[in-house]
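Posting this for the archive.
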Amino acid sequence: MKKIFTCLLAALGLTSACGQKNYEDADVSGFAALAAKPDVVVLDVRTAEEFNEGHLADALNIDVKQGDFMQKATAALTKESTIAVYCRSGRRSADAASRLAAAGYKVVNLKGGITAWKEANMPVATNAYEVDVFKTKSGKTVRFHALMHASIRMEYDGKEIEIDPVLKLRERSIDYSSMPKADYIFVTHEHGDHFDKEAIKQLTGEGTKLVTNKRCGDMLGYGTIMANGDNLKIADDITVDAVPAYNTTEANKQFHPKGRDNGFILTIDGLRIYIAGDTEDIPEMSAIKDIDVAFLPCNQPFTMTPDQLVNAAKMVKPKVVFPYHYGQTDVSGIPQLLKDEGIEVRIRHYE
């Protein structure tokens, strides 16, 4: 197998210094051909600031200079995929490539880094969407894109999943026309920061399945309707549970009345993902179990305060929690409040 892999690399214009390195090098054309393959993960090992200034399309960003680089990399990457790694000039990525290869990954390093890539007039993505990658029970990957506010894009096994897609919110916007058509669209409720007919239209292609609550289904005139407590199998390896999402604070109950809106629990090849929707820390959360990834909203008066989010996380006990839908709410203190709970908190630009 190693000989076949080496021959493939040679055919793509990739090189290796035999006996000196444990990874391959690629020039720009060879790297581009490799990165286009579906079983290849493109890894940017620069800082988040450098990444946001411009990066290769669909690249995963893990800073090699951070002390937890290997921990994050092994959590996000699978050894069944080839890792195409780059940095600014090729030096940091060479270090990353060597470390990953020593851990058993098949790795290709871009010679000259993104600097050489740009000099060859190759395309660079300029959006600042952050990407997080998780492994399913069988070792497949689910990629989460932090779009904005409550809008989340997921990629899994060639499938596109969109949560509450919205084209524009205040000064921010999402270009869904540049993204693939969705296989599944989930809409939690009818408020304009979650429900956007034009965004749904742009994402809908042949075979797209829309799952939503009754209010949105009535407004659209189509879609699979789920009420709180319903369970649905949408693919051989994907199921969805609709769970309650509502306000409990007396003055705010009109925003999200009990029984109208949904949260969703997606189980994707064993990976359990809780998308809470617009809700406070309701008692029903205590019945939600075995969650790997939770998206919990944080902006009163519409959803939760930081203290309520902490309480919700303690009830659900996810492995990783993403505060989202937080607007101008300061969520920076949440990691400290959950540091003794064994829950990892990741704050992304969902404001």
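The longest strand covers residues 204-212. The first helix runs from residue 2 to 11.
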